[in-house]
């Protein structure tokens, strides 16, 4: 692990592909074998992608989940983007310059067109960022933005309310997508929502969404960046919640690419010479958390007891077939902001019982845990059995993802199982997940409130002293683990399966995969 960390921390989030590409040539796929590269031989190239969870919204300001981002990141564009070499470069922005610590002037690329043919201007950027600030789900990303000053059609200035180390990286987040002001205002005037007719400047246009089944994006022939233009004609994401059914769909050609690889099937995918399995280091962390706004979970001794009571090794075996590692941290090992300073809670039933008695619950108690998805349901059954040894009864309530986010965002849960994929900026993990102002829908489903953590997160976001920032993050991690805010469970190995002849897939450690380069 230390050897791996030396490599991945040096590059912050460098991808490590362990499986090579398949052989060349075209092959049959889910669209009846019409996948001639680039549409050659008269074929339309549709790429069918399997996922296990449906999107929740087509409005980038109304979601903060990976499945929804698969759609919105391809429909919309951002001011900046993160390269495979972990560098921030212009996307819609041609350049930017810091005038001082709180003032940044941007120049837009000229002639960028929205999908309806209208031209992007600085007014669209101003409108988008101001709208985002009102979002309870992604508003925290631009909390440092005080105002946006439009100078002309291609020049604007972001005035910050304080210095921020997170501005540029935040602008890369899918929640910072740029809208057409005219289009959104027209929709709202008609009593519609942004997600009713999503429209941006991205490499794909929205075609349709059948909730619970699939959503489809079609190539934008007028995309502004030829180097990142779609190399296929259509992307169809198929929602297949049942694990074995996704693998079967890949094996029989219904799918070309499988994002949510069932870990129980990883071995047979590796052994199938018609398929390829790409493995990569991910910033994904799975965790169990309680709602600290409710008794008895406001008791730190009780939370520490839960931390000792859960057998993480059993969870890795049962939930992901050993395709992952037990984990004790609050941010992925491949992420910027990871430091190995946390308290380790070994699986120790006797210690858990002693702490439970200290907390005043020696005879146990009963609570309900919310989960979404079959893998987390499996994890929940292991935890349920573990806690039963302490006389604790954990009821499991499984639900659809959209319902889960709504209920846990409203604080209706006693406890829940969730996951987090850290992106390029530590602030975008620590702020939504652990600050008081983001309790609930903002991401802090633990409803953890600690003024000292709030101050440390704020200081790390503005302090120009790198050593001081590191100390802030180390203190944050140590405090979170000492207070047992979560029970971090495991970090799954990143897995993507595909037809061996499918080219152009480069996995992202932060699971913000791009699909524009996929082709046969």
Instruction: Give Rg in angstroms.
Output: 23 Å
Report the biggest beta sheet as strand number plus sense, adding barrel if it closes: 7 strands, mixed
Helix content: 25-40%
Mean pLDDT: 90
Number of helices: 15
Brief descriptors of the model:
disordered N terminus, 6-stranded mixed beta sheet, 19 strands, about 30% helix, 7-stranded mixed beta sheet, alpha+beta
Give a brief description.
The protein is an alpha+beta fold and 520 residues long. 28% of the residues lie in helices and 21% in strands.
Can you walk me through this structure?
With 520 residues, this protein is of the alpha+beta class. 28% of the residues lie in helices and 21% in strands. It is built from 15 helices and 19 strands. It has helices at residues 2-10, 66-75, 122-132, 167-170, 181-189, 243-251, 266-270, 300-309, 312-320, 349-358, 374-388, 401-409, 427-434, 451-462, 466-482; strands at residues 46-51, 80-82, 88-90, 93-100, 103-108, 145-152, 155-160, 204-210, 214-219, 234-239, 257-258, 275-280, 284-290, 324-326, 366-371, 393-398, 415-421, 486-492, 494-499. The strands form four sheets. Strands 8-9-10-1-11-19-12 form a seven-stranded mixed β-sheet, sandwiched between helices. A six-stranded mixed β-sheet has the order 14-18-13-17-15-16, sandwiched between helices. Strand 4 (93-100) and strand 5 (103-108) form a beta hairpin. Helix 9 runs antiparallel to helix 11, helix 13 packs antiparallel against helix 14 (451-462) and helix 14 runs antiparallel to helix 15. The protein starts with a helix and ends in a 21-residue tail after the last strand. Mean pLDDT is 90; it is low at 1-42.
């Amino acid at each position: 692990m230390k050897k791996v960390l030396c490599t991945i921390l040096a590059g912050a989030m460098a991808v490590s592909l362990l499986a090579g590409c398949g052989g060349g040539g075209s092959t049959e796929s889910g669209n009846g074998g019409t996948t001639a590269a680039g549409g050659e031989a008269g074929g339309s190239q549709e790429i069918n992608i399997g996922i296990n969870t449906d999107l929740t919204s087509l409005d980038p300001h109304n979601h903060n989940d990976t499945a929804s981002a698969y759609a919105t990141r391809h429909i919309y564009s951002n001011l900046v983007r993160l390269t495979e070499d972990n560098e921030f470069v212009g996307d819609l922005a041609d350049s930017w310059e810091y005038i001082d610590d709180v003032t940044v002037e941007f120049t837009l690329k000229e002639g960028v067109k929205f999908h309806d043919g209208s031209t992007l201007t600085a007014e669209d950027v101003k409108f988008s960022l101001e709208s985002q600030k009102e979002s309870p789900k992604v508003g925290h990303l631009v909390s440092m933005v005080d105002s946006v000053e439009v100078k002309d059609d291609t020049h604007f200035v972001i005035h910050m309310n304080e210095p921020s180390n997170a501005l540029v990286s935040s602008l890369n987040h899918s929640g910072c997508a740029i809208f057409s002001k005219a289009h959104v205002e027209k929709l709202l005037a008609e009593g519609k929502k942004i997600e009713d007719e999503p429209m941006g400047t991205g490499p794909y246009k929205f075609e349709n969404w059948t909730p619970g089944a699939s959503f489809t994006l079609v190539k934008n022939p007028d995309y502004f960046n030829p180097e990142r233009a779609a190399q296929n004609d259509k992307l169809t994401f198929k929602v297949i919640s049942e694990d074995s059914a996704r693998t079967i769909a890949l094996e029989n050609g219904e799918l070309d690419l499988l994002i949510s690889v069932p870990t129980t099937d990883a071995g047979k995918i590796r052994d199938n010479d018609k398929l390829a399995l790409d493995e990569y280091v991910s910033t994904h962390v799975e965790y169990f958390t309680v709602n600290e706004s409710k008794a008895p979970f406001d008791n730190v001794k009780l939370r520490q007891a839960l931390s000792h009571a859960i057998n993480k090794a059993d969870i890795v075996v049962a939930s992901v077939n050993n395709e992952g590692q037990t984990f004790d941290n609050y941010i992925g090992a491949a992420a910027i902001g990871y430091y190995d300073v946390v308290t380790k809670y070994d699986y120790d039933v006797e210690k858990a019982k002693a702490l439970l008695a200290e907390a005043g619950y020696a005879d146990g108690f009963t609570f309900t845990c919310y989960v979404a998805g079959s893998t987390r349901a499996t994890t929940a059954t292991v935890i349920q059995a573990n806690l039963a040894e302490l006389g604790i009864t954990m009821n499991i309530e499984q639900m659809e993802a959209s319902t889960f986010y709504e209920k846990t965002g409203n604080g209706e849960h006693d406890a829940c199982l969730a996951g987090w994929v850290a992106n390029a900026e530590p602030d975008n993990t620590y702020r939504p997940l652990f600050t008081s102002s983001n309790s609930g829908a903002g991401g802090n489903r633990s409803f953890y409130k600690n003024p000292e953590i709030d101050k440390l997160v704020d200081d790390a976001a503005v302090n120009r002293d790198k050593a001081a920032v590191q100390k802030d993050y180390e203190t944050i991690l140590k405090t979170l683990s000492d207070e047992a805010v979560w029970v971090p469970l495991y970090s799954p190995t990143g897995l993507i399966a595909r037809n061996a002849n499918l080219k152009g897939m480069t996995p992202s450690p932060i699971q913000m995969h791009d699909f524009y380069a996929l082709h046969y």
